[in-house]
Predict the structure.
Amino acid sequence: MNENKKIATRQSYGEKLAELGEKNENIIVFDSDLSEATKTSIFAKKFPNRFFDMGIAEQDMISTAAGVSTFGKIAFASTFAMFATGRAYDQIRNSVCYPNLNVKICASHSGVTVGEDGATHQMLEDIGLMRGLPNMKVMCTSDDIQTKWAVEEITKINGPVYLRLCRLATPVIYDEKQKFEFGKGLQIGDGTDATIFATGVVVSEAIKAKEELEKVGINVRVVDMHTIKPIDKEIIIKCAKETKKLISIEDHSIIGGLGTAISEVLVEEYPTKLIRMGINDVFGKSGKATELLEFYKLTAKGIIEKVMDE
Amino acid sequence: MVFYAILFTKLQKYDKTYIKNILKGRSGVKIKNIEELQTYANKIRKDIIEAVYSAGSGHPGGSLSIAEILAVLYFNQMNIDEKNPKAKERDRLVLSKGHTSPALYSALALRGFFEEEKLKTFRNIESILQGHPDMVKVPGVDCSTGSLGQGLSIANGMAIASKLDNEGIRVYCICGDGEIEEGQIWEAAMTSAHYKLDNLCVIVDNNNLQIDGKVTDVMSVYPIDEKFKSFGFEVINVDGHNIAELIQAFEQAKKVKGKPTAIIANTIKGKGVSFMENQAEWHGKAPNEEQYKQAMQELENIK
């Protein structure tokens, strides 16, 4: 992990999308007046004919993307996670998921790491909303390398995908050679004292916690859950069997997100206690993203405390 | 040589557009006779009553009001091929008021997309004919609809894609007058005009009734024509039960360049069945046996 090189996953998305646009003329991109923030502006500048700004009208954007996809196009629709999944939920459900159309909803500004804009813009329920939709696949990536892989990977899936992206620049965790597999969690380390299942912006915090704990002789493993639906049952059961403690962490409500998805697997397959770290059924608030992560204890320090807790 | 000579003579009987359409995988069905088209509209009405009666539920009122619109689109206007329902170059129809699926299913069955027998399975657990249209299950259905207000955006998407591919496809979208109370319709209307979707034609089924009563009483959407005009549409007002007027409007819409067209079709909810006409209560209920018999008798007499 390179602590000095920080990139926001929204940036990686924008760059990769523009790169894919060269090879694949079927990629059509939509945004709702936030292209500079979601970074679809990079694609827009390169391919103005295949970029459609829909104005501040997220519901229209999602259904229009659905219509375009019926012509064999891969429609990408981007805006903030709040408005993409909250404002346009019915459109995602009925225009996109019910007919299983090839629409990729790539939403930035998820979680409290939106920062200063505060609660109205900090989407904490999106994974829960998207996970419940038949035909929908859900991804939440943790760094630049993984995001670029994911953006290409989802173009190979014929059907709806939700990709959750972040505003906050976070460390580059992986090197170019790292292999990822859709639907498979990536295990980092093989410590048996605890497993930390993490997704998105907090994976780097989990890795930091792992490194700190090693110094005091506590060996944990981190599982980067970039795919939340379908959830990787195998790795959850394996870690439940092999490690003494299970923790999940996400910049999302503890209701409906990664922690819930893991709980569902555990309760049916291998009943084990899971400590869910996330936003505990409250709205976010204004502040610097890093301050907010500290406030909600979504940091390496917060994880270490949970691991050390008896 | 003799074979080609015969073929050539045979082909000469048809006009060029017909042959071009056949070669492009489009079917050449284009009924010009008004009476014949009216017969199709009447058949659609009978199918609606049959389907809703056998299902014991459904939406007859708003289905009956679009019978002529669908008869004209499916038998006079649209370039489609029942043998190749997914042909890329086909015209598209989005029934944004998806609850009036019985009318659409009838038009599709009459056009040969599936057996007419299937209409009786409407809303049954094993049927492809869902309460609201499902594009995955039903041949000829271009778009899944049901949640009101989304169809115009989807139709815009199709019109955009068609322009990107330079296909020359026309996209039709039928909305209800109650439906246009949904805000998304007006987001979409902005998009249609902003992206100059002149290959798009919206038809508003203006029967002035919605579930809770008259549109004017529940939440007035008037003036519909002025609204669409101010949003940048070419607007044509027609009697939605007059086949000649509908054909003329669709032909006029094809000539409009640089902007979308909205046809405001003045219709009667429940048209053709005396006790259903202009009655909001027939928006979404099935007739009992006696009412069914009377309705069928009345529709039989029209013919």
The CA atoms of residues 15 and 42 of chain A lie 7 Å apart.
